[in-house]
Design a protein that fits this description.
By secondary structure, this protein is of the alpha+beta class. Strand 7 and strand 8 form a beta hairpin. 23% of the residues are buried. Helices cover 28% and strands 18% of the residues. A five-stranded antiparallel sheet has the order 1-3-4-5-9. It is built from ten helices and eleven strands. Helix 5 packs antiparallel against helix 6. The protein binds a DNA duplex through helix 8, helix 9 and helix 10.
Length: 362
DNA sequence: TCTGTATGGGGAA
DNA sequence: TCCCCCTACAGAT
């Protein structure tokens, strides 16, 4: 499922920060981004946001003035964002524009404030005049009934899904559609989840991200937010005592107990992963010492690209370590060193709350 | 300085 | 099915 909760929180963030703010001028794109320019310039406009699954839509709405009434009225523009691995929104002073800000909306006042789309890895994308991607499935958080009705049962998942109807048979039916899931409902859902090992898998796809959305008042700021509450909520991902295996795509699956019959036969934990020939070929940095092969030239090409990128972007001061307190049952190894290690490795990913599950079912 | 890890999604094979 | 698009950062060397 990944980023659902995070994208939704991003839309809430935009609406909160941009409420009452008048934006003005052109939308500016960084030079390094390969995403399309946003041909929108307006003397005065407002910004609002909505989310659906793993997409966020910004709507730029021009404000009519006497001047513009005489001219042709400018139309609103939707821009649909997908965050890739590292996208998020910030709202800052103009002189505090974040590194890797790739699309910027400037407020009308001086000095300006800026709503910026920030994306270090640049895997994210945006589409001017965009629409919700038509071939995506229903939003598991806010189109739960649709999500539930037309899911073809993948054969490997048959055992898990067997016996599930198209209807949600759980007693707690509050968190549907655009209803607001209150804390009481979350608690109820959690009790059901904990109580029944065979809790409805489809429902968990809905309740787990909704729990993240409703974790409470820490706000949305992927660079500065306090993730301790979220980290305490995690039950499996990077939690001491849990197991992990790489699947055939090299993706790490976290779980506890028996991995099940479909576990990759030669799978290893991430740390024990043996370096393969494919890894070597993929690793352009190690080619520096080699001699004149085709892959080397490809590697060098990449290096040049990397150097180019670094030239365009300023260095970031090192981040300070964040503390991690996991409020789950006591574990054997609680040494600060161990905790620091797992925390830092996971930090960047764990903060991407939506892609995490409390209990991975595989 | 080098290496491994994070893993969404487009597109080629 | 797999490559590729990218950067940040911790830990190893």
């Amino acid at each position: 499922m990944p980023e659902g909760p995070e994208l939704h929180l991003a839309s809430l963030f935009v609406n909160k920060m941009c409420e009452g703010v008048l934006f003005s001028g052109p939308v500016r794109k960084s030079e390094v981004s390969k995403n399309p320019d946003v041909a929108f310039a307006c003397d005065a406009y407002r910004i609002s946001a909505a989310s659906r699954g793993k997409e966020v839509k910004l709507t730029l709405t021009p404000i009519k003035s006497d001047d513009t009434k005489a001219k042709e009225a400018q139309q609103p523009m939707d821009i649909v964002f997908r965050f890739g691995m590292s996208g998020f929104f910030r709202f800052t002073a103009e002189d505090e524009l974040p590194k890797h800000a790739h699309l910027c909306f400037y407020s009308k006042e001086k000095p300006s404030r800026v709503l910026s789309y920030v994306d270090a890895r640049r895997f994210g994308s945006w589409q001017p005049h965009g629409t919700w991607q038509p071939d995506r499935g229903p939003c598991i958080m806010f189109e739960y009934e649709s999500f539930r009705s037309n899911i073809p049962p993948f054969v490997p998942a048959r055992i898990v899904l067997e016996g599930l109807g198209s209807d949600d048979t759980c007693k707690d039916k509050k968190p549907l559609k655009n209803d607001i899931l209150n804390r009481k409902a979350v608690t109820t859902a959690r009790k059901i989840t904990m109580k029944d090992e065979h809790a409805d898998l489809l429902r968990l796809c809905h309740t787990v991200p909704m729990e993240v959305v409703h974790l409470g008042g820490k706000g949305y700021d992927p660079e500065k937010a306090d993730y301790s509450e979220f980290e305490a909520w995690l039950q499996c991902y990077y939690v001491d005592g849990m197991k992990s295996i790489r699947d055939h795509n090299g993706r790490t699956i976290w779980f506890k107990g028996d991995p099940g019959p479909m576990a990759p036969k030669d799978s290893k934990s991430p740390k024990a992963k043996k370096r393969t020939k494919k890894d070597e070929e993929h690793d352009y940095t190690s080619k520096k010492k080699g001699g004149g092969t085709q892959s080397e030239s490809a590697g060098m090409k990449k290096e040049i690209k990397v150097a180019k990128t670094k030239k365009n972007e300023q260095a970031t001061p090192p981040r300070t370590a964040k503390s991690l307190k996991v409020n789950t049952p006591p574990r054997e190894d609680k040494s600060p060193a161990r905790r620091r290690k797992t925390t830092k490795l996971a930090e960047g990913s764990r903060r991407r709350s939506g892609r995490l599950t409390r209990q991975t079912v595989k």
